[in-house]
Amino acid sequence: MLPSTPADPDLVRALEAICGADHVSAGDADRMAYARDMWPRSLIRQRAGAFDHPPEVVVWPGSAEEVAAVVKAAVGAGRCTVPFGAGSGVCGGTLPVRGGVVLDLKRLNRILDLVESDCVAHVEAGAIGEILERELNRRGWTLGHFPSSIYCSTLGGWLAGRSAGQCSSRFGKIEDMLRKLTWVDADGRLCETPFAPPGFAPWSADPLIVGSEGTLGIICSAWMVIRPLSAKRRYTAWILPDVEAGIDCMRSVMRAGLRPSVLRLYDEFDTLVAGSDPAVDEPGSSLLGGLAEKASAPAKALFHLGLARVLQMPRLLNRAADLLPGGCLLVAVFEGEDWERDLSADLLAEICAGRDGKDQGEGPARHWWHHRYSISYKQSPVFMDGAFVDTMEVAATWDRLPAMYRKVRQALAPLAFVMAHFSHAYSEGGSIYFTFAGAASDDAAALGVYDRIWDAAQAAVSAERGVVSHHHGVGLSKARYLVRQLGEAGSLVCAVKRAFDPHGRLNPGKLGLEEMDP
Question: Is 277 exposed, middle or buried (0-12, 13-18, 19+ CB in 10 A)?
Answer without folding.
Answer: exposed
